[in-house]
Amino acid sequence: MEAxxxxxxxxxxxxxxxxxxxTSALPEVAGWIAIYEEMVSVLRSVISRADGSGEVDELRSxxxxxxxxxxxWRDRHAELAGxxxxxxxxxxxxGGKSLxxxxxEADLLDFLLRHPQRPFTSKQLATLAWQNSRxxxxxxxxxxMRLRNRLRAVGLGEVIxxxxxxxxxxxxxxxxxxx
Length: 179
Known about the structure:
Elements: E1 5-8, E2 11-14, H1 26-50, H2 56-81, E3 83-86, E4 91-94, E5 97-100, H3 103-114, H4 122-128, H5 137-151, E6 160-163, E7 167-170
Helix pairs in contact: 1-2, 4-5
């Protein structure tokens, strides 16, 4: 099987074997998200150690492309799941129903949706979803509980799950699309 070539000015990138942005299988999409997240993490670590090296510009260029690819997979996941979050108006649309959210609820839901099937502790959510490490675990639990209750109105009450000793996770979206 020949890999598809993705064009970027001055560079040709290849998709990984088996990578197909047209897939409708949410677990497959979640897998590609995890792969690209790991690549971003590793490349950022390499860049932090390579500062001052002549290769930093090329590494940053590679990182930019990988981050764009990760964003594309995250958008594909949201599309397949049928969940649309309007970040400006803090509204959620799912299954033809709309729900107004607070800014924090919208940020939390958007973050979890963009990191499907990956658990996060309360501290991680406070820092990564809200950039606020001062929120206590109890405050984060309250936001999670409130959001889960509100999501029931649009049929998404069970999508935020708890993995014992691991954290909160987005799961269960688009089960009918999994193939």
